[in-house]
Amino acid sequence: MSLAKRIIPCLDVDHGRVLKGTHFRDMRDIGNPVELAKKYRDDGADELVFLDITASIEKRKTLIEMVRNVASNLDIPFTVGGGIRSVEDVKMILSNGADKISINTAAVENPLLIKELVSRFGQQCVVVAIDGKRKVKENGEIWFEVYTYGGTKPTGLNAIEWAKRCEALGAGELLITSIDKDGTKSGYDLDLTRMIAEAVNIPIIASGGCGEPKHILDVLTIGKADAALAASIFHYDEYPIPLVKRYLKENGVNVRL
User: Fold this and answer.
1) Is 131 a catalytic residue?
2) 81-91, pLDDT tens digit by residue?
3) Catalytic residue selected from 14, 46, 89, 131
4) For a Cys-Cys bond, which of 99, 149, 171, 252 suits 77, CB 3.0-4.6 Å?
């Protein structure tokens, strides 16, 4: 029996409120992170991801008090990302109730931080987030460029090569977001997730573009992801988690009901 695929709601938080935008821009206020976290817990989410979306851009630390408030209401794994730059930051977040941390900008700027965090806190705690944008070479070949600082800064790094390096440095999981698809509700970038899933042997969480249950089915099958992260479809109650899980089960995907 294959491992159960996971459904993970995402809370994009900015200064204490959950927001949702398109292509990492045009943010709308969705609500209170603690209330939403409780709702998703009750709805049967497998995990929850909390991203402080402006922490890296504003070069400030993640909002610790909010992490504590959310964690105290959860009994499912809880990942926190945004503005994490050091061992001290991670220690603070984990000691306030998070189960895992997610790093993106800091990992690109100092890849050895991945190794250091794994040796200090264990592989299961370290998720590397990769924000990728689709590019086309002159010969027509597709590649994906890694962006940092909340999708604002191109790095020149190839996302597939970077994913392999993250695995080699000990990352426990990769959170792959398509910048092109983010907030569009047009479906995940199946090429991006599949290419990375085929290149590494650690779990892949797919993110960016979910608009309906079929998109989640596609990314867990064609896209070969181990987990699907979504925001809009859950925030607006278009497709509650129990409905999504039943749909996946009916279509042959192993999920925890």
Assistant:
1) yes
2) 988 999 999 99
3) 131
4) 99
